Amino acid sequence: xxxxxxxxxxxxxxxxxxxxxxxxxxxxxxxxxxxxxxxxxxxxxxxxxxxxxxxxxxxxxxxxxxxxxxxxxxxxxxxxxxxxxxxxxxxxxxxxxxxxxxxxxxxxxxxxxxxxxxxxxxxxxxxxxxxxxxxxxxxxxxxxxxxxxxxxxxxxxxxxxxxxxxxxxxxxxxxxxxxxxxxxxxxxxxxxxxxxxxxxxxxxxxxxxxxxxxxxxxxxxxxxxxxxxxxxxxxxxxxxxxxxxxxxxxxxxxxxxxxxxxxxxxxxxxxxxxxxxxxxxxxxxxxxxxxxxxxxxxxxxxxxxxxxx
Amino acid sequence: xxxxxxxxxxxxxxxxxxxxxxxxxxxxxxxxxxxxxxxxxxxxxxxxxxxxxxxxxxxxxxxxxxxxxxxxxxxxxxxxxxxxxxxxxxxxxxxxxxxxxxxxxxxxxxxxxxxxxxxxxxxxxxxxxxxxxxxxxxxxxxxxxxxxxxxxxxxxxxxxxxxxxxxxxxxxxxxxxxxxxxxxxxxxxxxxxxxxxxxxxxxxxxxxxxxxxxxxxxxxxxxxxxxxxxxxxxxxxxxxxxxxxxxxxxxxxxxxxxxxxxxxxxxxxxxxxxxxxxxxxxxxxxxxxxxxxxxxxxxx
Lengths: 309, 300
Fold this sequence. Notes:
heterodimer; A: two-stranded parallel sheet; 22% strand; phosphate transmembrane transporter activity (chain B); Phosphate transport system permease protein (chain B)
């Protein structure tokens, strides 16, 4: 009996070890394969092969997903996997080498330490703009930056203080670690805010929209692609949140969608990133899914928020 | 292994015996290895926030301020612990009487109809995905509470209501099995002494099956404690201890699911989330121990 148990244990151990070894070699192989494939491709024109794993931001996922399907149709030997998991996960995995591309809503420097962040190469593929939205029954059309800060820090608790009806303000926020919240706080409020008592926090834009639309006196913020009639969009400092205003720099609440690679990408990944930046994706899928093409932007912004025309 | 010259073949039934043994031991070993490696993984991750980041345990367990992005960051998990306990206990308080009464009806009062139609219907509840419960909660229960009570409808009350429906099948089916396993002689003896049906149920059946019924309730609570998605959708997720049952608050599971993907592995905030996962796992172990203890009492 004891002998058999030992036998079984040894077997298990061998299998697990073997399995570990195998996954390593297979991933190595696929990398080599992609290298070889592209080397060959130079000779035989556009014979890309290999696999790409893109992980991260769920806000960027639909775009990468849609573009990857097109890319795979054009290059049948390439397989691209797109996974969500959040910006933090994407950055960790690309930095650790588990993923080829890390999708992120924020600059890597904002999440990672300086060392690992410096190794990553940024590819900005789209711009996403956000607008403050309120419950349709609240008759407020415009909120200044100052008013927004006061609302989100809890200094103003009633709509009557900002020119609305006598109704309590209900904040529908994002979790403190969310990229969407970081963008909104950085560019709309200009300050970090605490989670207020009684405020609601939801991570998914769909739920935020539903709650803002249904809850009396609610205020939240959504990416432009999520806006519809169930919520009311308010102007920011008198500026409407439109694609034009974002592009010419008058509307400040927007952020880049980043696709990070560790070091310079290999040929397959590079080809895919070039495809993401091509007019075919930028003018079609990007617009279709409610993002703003990077090429349309008349202004650029760096990590510290400095805007240049 | 091969016996001396005359009988080179091992007998068939011995081979079968050994194949059976090896296959079952393999399965068990695989399970044990999985469980232990998971415990090990969560524990090393969860403890690193104490050893590596130097946060003290008292701050996590007793602090009521959760400001992971603040300066300095604060990691008080008390609101989540309170949120988890209050929702799951409240859910059990709602579901236990319902489930046990339903089981009584199905076994003692309407055995034929109950077994044939009611039990499958209740067990069907167990098969509904939790995101559906969450969405129904968000679309039906939250607006209802918003109209009936002060506040926004989201909160412990909404979470507990959704959870109570989710854990109803667990409590009901364990209670049904316990009641059905009761020896008929016990009830007949009670009737023979002149007790009415109500007296028999109340004085004989329920006290005898109580440990098993409680097992069901505790298992239900354990499920409620670990449920993440449905609760996260209806509880509001503000990291504060609420003043009422209808004010936004968080549970351990909801804060983990909300923030885990947004934080970087190995960062302080991520490690603290793993600590919360460790607390969650410890609590599940406690629930399992309570169940074992109740089962032992039931056997006596």
